[in-house]
Amino acid sequence: MSTWIVVASVWAMLAICAMLFVRGASLRHHRMNEASEEARLAHNEISRTKV
Asked: For 4-41, how does the pLDDT look when each residue is reduced to its tens digit (9 = 90+)?
C-alpha cells in the first residue's frame, strides 16, 4: 500500500512539473512572438519614414 502511495505521489509530482513547464514555455513563446511582431512593425515604420 505505501509503495503505491509513493509511486502515485512521484507520478503526480512529475505530471504537475511537466504541466507547469509546458505552460511557462508557451507563455514565453507567446511573449516572444509579440515582441518580434512589435519589432517588425517598428522596423516597417522606420523604413516608411526614410522614403
From this structure: 999 999 999 999 999 998 887 776 655 666 666 666 65
Q: What span, in angstroms and rounded, lies between the C-alpha atoms of 38 and 33?
A: 9
For residue 35, CA distances in Å to 1, 13, 21, 41, 43 come to 51, 33, 21, 10, 12
pLDDT at position 44 is 57
Helical H runs in 1-51?
2-50
5, three cell numbers: 502511495
> In whole angstroms, what is the distance from residue 36 CA to residue 31 CA?
9
